[in-house]
Amino acid sequence: MGRRKKKSDAGEPLGSIGDCTRTMAELLTAITFIESSIALRDAAAAVVAEQWEEILEEARARKTEAETALRNYYYAHKAEIERNGAKHLQLDNGVMGRRTNPPALKKLRGWSWERVKQEVWVRLGGTYFHRQDDPPLDKDRLKELAAEELEKLGMKLESSETFYAEPSRIDGK
């Protein structure tokens, strides 16, 4: 359903206080009609959303179950699947595998980020690893340090991996 075409002219110019009063009343009527229409539309949308929620929850549960089954199979057969160095398995109708996420700086147990910032300032001379006067740490530069140096500063580099299962679609999406 399209929108109505707007009138090309603004109508007759207002010529009196009475015209202004009537036009103000028309403005109020239009505003309250818009507000009530939006409220009715939103109420109808809420009813429809509620009707679909059970169907969507069931579909989400099936999705989680399928992903879990694929993940369990992959890790149970990881040595066989990754025999040639690939970290994925191409199926006729999709691909599953694991991605290694970029290393992230993590603070060591018992350290706070405030203590880490102080150690970086004292041991490494301040501003190179800081971005401002009361700065957040420049974690990209800190990642370049050796593991032993990071440990002295209360940090470590840690990578994680993410399993993925991506079904193929005919339209490529």
Question: DSSP helix count?
Answer: 5
Arithmetic mean pLDDT: 87
Helix content: 40-55%
Integer tally of domains: 2
Q: How much beta, percentage-wise?
A: 15-25%
Query: In one word, what is the shape?
Result: flat
Biggest sheet architecture = 3 strands, antiparallel
Order of helices and strands: HHEEEHHHEE
What ranges have pLDDT less than 50 throughout 5 or more consecutive residues? none
Structural class, by secondary structure, is alpha+beta
Strand order in the largest sheet: 1-2-5
Radius of gyration: 31 Å
Number of strands: 5
In whole angstroms, how far apart are the ends? 28 Å
List the helices and strands and how they pair.
Layout: H1 17-76, H2 78-81, E1 88-91, E2 94-100, E3 104-107, H3 113-124, H4 139-142, H5 147-152, E4 155-158, E5 161-167
Antiparallel strand pairs: 1-2, 2-5, 3-4
